[in-house]
């Protein structure tokens, strides 16, 4: 008797040709229902298998670390706190899931795989004993600025030792220490006492200094999101790109309501921009332009255009204050080029991955440079005397020591695939990351310090109380002194954590914006037509950052809603642009506070002005700080009452509103005396 074969069974190839007969009516319906039931059972089994494998039941892509005592489901830490514990599940408690790895550790130390995921390779745990000893000596020498001369001397000795090691005597020792990845013993790194990562801008610095993790662990993780600094030739093309974007009217012709075919308009505008770039290249370098565009075919030069647009994106990430007028236009052009219909008509893609330090070193086979202890001295940021550095002679010696460290690392790890100059470029890029963190993130640390040092949560009486009341002086929240203290503290802590991971957040935001599977919709958000687009990658990282900030402050005041992909924050570009403005708000305030004592000591007239108007410099500082902590976090600044409040983005909106009223403050002349010209980040005199 022949079996009845339904359409789903035929498509799933579960039958043989001899078993197939055509059916209809009730028999076919019953067969379909039977197949649907089997599919549901398979899906249930897969879900249970995933859960048994240790994945979070909510996101299904992160290892589960917490078990809900009420539901008996496994979650990752972020999903449990931000997704599961809501509404009626708010009182659910969790217990950590033990990891069966022999010692109940979350992660085993392992050797780093240089060739890719899943490959078993043999790598030396200590490829160069003499170099390692030299690196330790260098770290000890770099413990403080007073030892800069000793560091320079050690660097010279290290270079001489490296040049003498070319006889091949250490190759046998290296081969003897080669181990498979699975055979690598778990060693606990104990860096030298002189190891100082205070300028590297990392929360892991304390763990590194305490010997809990290795120096290379932090640098490897961080380097994956640090863009490579532009070379001189790339900067020439960057200027051409900016010039072409400045004259382009792309968004004016695309993001409008029109009955004309939008795909054709997009393709025409993209081709016009490529033509402008081609003409500028030809005008600036005739031979190069002639070789590139002699056939006048955009498809043949797709790689050239991808590189041009990639270096523009890379430059913007490293320098948020640059390309303020054209970066949004660049992203929207690349966003449209990812639409399948547009990509088919163009016949090539304009999007390529950002070139990062990690991927450049990985392609050159020089990832070991990130694990060399000497990298701390090679990427250290040298501060001026005014910024907290040493004397002029000490700074000069530190610069020489740093440059020599870079030379040693470049020569030591250069390969056929990457030259010494390429390694130096990567080291300079890591140093740029440290400078970015000091400029953007450190003002948050300083404001947190001002708040903790000058205000106590249990003492808020008098003129410097932080208490606010809805309806008074523009405030839309009502907090007593203690609640407002904690509200300001947690907001600054959150900003600090966001800026700490800004490069990672930026790259994930670009990944959401330029995804060919995540299309946008042109919508009227109440502030004109905007491209509304979901941002799942950036949103997930933001929830992780929020959870980390909540753990630091202990508890949370106000809402924890993150607006992204809605009428308040239409897309990831708007989101990332909001948080690049934080240092523009905080840096002028910090500079003003730091300048008050200097102005008072160096000018008798200004001293008398401070005494007569503000009862002295210290009272003036408290006046500025108390006003900022009150009204920069009072829920104001939105167009209507319902859009204002204590959500994550509302805190930044309130700070913007405070900045817009700075001219009305009685202490505004003090800002002018300190060199303040505005919160836009341009023209500030240092």
Structure notes:
By secondary structure, the chain is mostly helical. It folds into four domains: 7-96, no CATH class; 122-227 and 357-439, no CATH class; 232-346, no CATH class; 441-673, no CATH class. Helix content is 54%, strand content 3%. It has a three-stranded antiparallel beta sheet. A two-stranded antiparallel sheet has the order 4-5. A two-stranded antiparallel sheet has the order 6-7. Helix 11 (262-284) crosses helix 15 (340-346). The radius of gyration is 30 Å and the shape is globular. It comes from Chytriomyces confervae. One of its GO terms (molecular function) is zinc ion binding.
How do the strands and helices of this protein lay out in sequence?
Elements: H1 7-11, H2 25-52, E1 66-68, E2 74-75, H3 77-84, E3 94-96, E4 122-124, H4 129-141, H5 148-164, H6 171-176, E5 178-180, H7 205-209, H8 215-223, H9 232-247, H10 250-254, H11 262-284, H12 286-293, H13 302-318, H14 327-337, H15 340-346, H16 357-363, H17 375-378, H18 392-413, H19 420-440, H20 442-454, H21 481-500, H22 502-513, E6 521-524, E7 529-532, H23 536-553, H24 572-579, H25 582-602, H26 604-614, H27 617-631, H28 648-660, H29 668-673
Antiparallel strand pairs: 1-2, 1-3, 4-5, 6-7
In what range is the share of β-strand residues? under 5%
Query: Helicity, in percent?
Result: 40-55%
**Biggest sheet, strands in spatial order?**
2-1-3
Termini gap:
92 Å
* Strand segment tally: 7
Oligomer: single chain
Q: Unreliable segments (pLDDT under 50, ≥5 consecutive)? A: 1-25, 100-152, 154-203
Shape: globular
Mean pLDDT comes to 77
**Structural class of the secondary elements?**
mainly alpha
Count the helices. How many?
Answer: 29
Global Rg = 30 Å
**Major sheet details:** 3 strands, antiparallel
How many structural domains in the coordinates? 4
Keywords: Metal-binding, Zinc, Zinc-finger
GO molecular function, one term: zinc ion binding
Region (Disordered): 15-53, 87-134, 157-200
Biased composition (Acidic residues): 161-183
């Amino acid at each position: 008797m022949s079996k009845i074969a339904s359409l789903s069974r035929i498509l799933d190839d579960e039958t043989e040709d001899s078993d197939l007969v055509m059916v209809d009516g009730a028999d076919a319906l019953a067969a379909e229902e039977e197949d649907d039931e089997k599919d549901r059972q398979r899906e249930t089994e897969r879900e249970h298998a995933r859960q048994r494998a240790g994945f979070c039941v909510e996101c299904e892509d992160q290892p589960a670390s917490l078990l809900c005592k009420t539901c008996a489901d496994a979650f990752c830490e972020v999903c449990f706190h931000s997704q599961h514990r809501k509404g009626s599940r708010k009182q659910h408690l969790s217990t950590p899931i033990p990891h069966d790895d022999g010692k109940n550790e979350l992660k085993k130390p392992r050797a780093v795989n240089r060739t890719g995921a899943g490959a078993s390779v043999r790598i030396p745990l200590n490829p160069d004993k003499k170099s390692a000893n030299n690196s330790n000596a260098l770290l000890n020498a770099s413990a403080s600025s007073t030892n800069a001369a000793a560091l320079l001397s050690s660097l010279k000795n290290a270079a001489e030792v490296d040049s003498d090691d070319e006889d091949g005597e250490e190759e046998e020792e290296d081969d003897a220490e080669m181990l498979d990845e699975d055979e690598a013993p778990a060693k606990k790194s104990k860096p030298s006492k002189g190891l100082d990562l205070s300028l590297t801008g990392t929360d892991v610095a304390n763990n590194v200094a305490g010997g809990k993790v290795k120096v290379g662990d932090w640098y490897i993780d961080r380097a994956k999101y640090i863009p490579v600094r532009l070379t001189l030739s790339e900067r020439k093309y960057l200027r051409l790109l900016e010039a072409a974007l400045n004259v382009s009217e792309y968004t004016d012709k695309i993001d409008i309501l029109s009955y004309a075919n939008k795909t054709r308009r997009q393709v025409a505008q993209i081709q016009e921009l490529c033509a402008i770039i081609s003409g500028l290249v030809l005008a600036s370098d005739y031979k190069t332009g002639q070789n590139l565009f002699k056939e006048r075919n955009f498809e043949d030069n797709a790689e050239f255009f991808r590189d041009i647009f990639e270096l523009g994106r890379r430059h913007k990430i490293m320098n948020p204050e640059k390309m303020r007028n054209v970066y949004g236009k660049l992203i929207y052009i690349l966003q449209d080029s990812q639409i399948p219909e547009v990509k088919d008509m163009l016949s090539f893609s304009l999007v390529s991955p950002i070139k990062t330090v990690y991927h450049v070193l990985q392609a050159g086979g020089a990832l070991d440079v990130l694990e060399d202890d000497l990298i701390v001295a090679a990427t250290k940021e040298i501060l001026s005397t005014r910024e907290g550095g040493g004397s002029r002679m000490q700074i000069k010696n530190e610069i020489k020591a740093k440059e020599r460290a870079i030379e040693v690392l470049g020569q030591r790890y250069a390969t056929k695939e990457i030259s010494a100059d390429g390694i130096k470029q990567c080291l300079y890029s890591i140093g740029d990351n440290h400078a970015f963190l000091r400029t953007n993130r450190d003002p948050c640390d300083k404001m947190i310090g001002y708040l903790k040092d000058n205000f106590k949560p249990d003492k808020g009486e008098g003129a410097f109380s932080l208490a606010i009341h809805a309806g008074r002086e523009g405030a839309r929240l009502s907090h007593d002194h203690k609640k407002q203290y904690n509200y300001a503290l947690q907001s600054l802590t959150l900003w600090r954590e966001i800026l700490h991971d800004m490069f990672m957040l930026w790259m994930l935001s670009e990944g959401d914006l330029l995804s060919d599977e995540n299309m946008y919709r042109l919508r009227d958000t109440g502030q004109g037509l905007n491209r509304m687009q979901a941002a799942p990658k950036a949103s997930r990282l933001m929830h992780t950052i929020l959870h980390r900030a909540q753990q630091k402050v202990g508890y949370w005041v106000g809402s924890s809603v993150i607006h992204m992909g809605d009428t308040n924050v239409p897309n990831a570009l708007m989101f990332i642009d909001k948080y690049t403005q934080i240092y523009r708000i905080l840096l002028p305030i910090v500079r003003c506070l730091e300048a008050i004592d200097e102005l008072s000591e160096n000018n008798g007239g200004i001293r008398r002005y401070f005494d007569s108007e503000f009862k002295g410099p210290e009272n003036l500082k408290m006046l500025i700080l108390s006003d900022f902590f009150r009204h920069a976090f009072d829920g104001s600044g939105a167009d209507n009452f319902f859009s204002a409040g204590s959500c994550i983005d509302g805190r930044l909106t309130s700070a913007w509103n405070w900045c817009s009223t700075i001219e009305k403050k009685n202490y505004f002349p003090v800002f002018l005396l300190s060199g303040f010209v505005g919160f836009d980040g341009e023209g500030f005199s240092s």
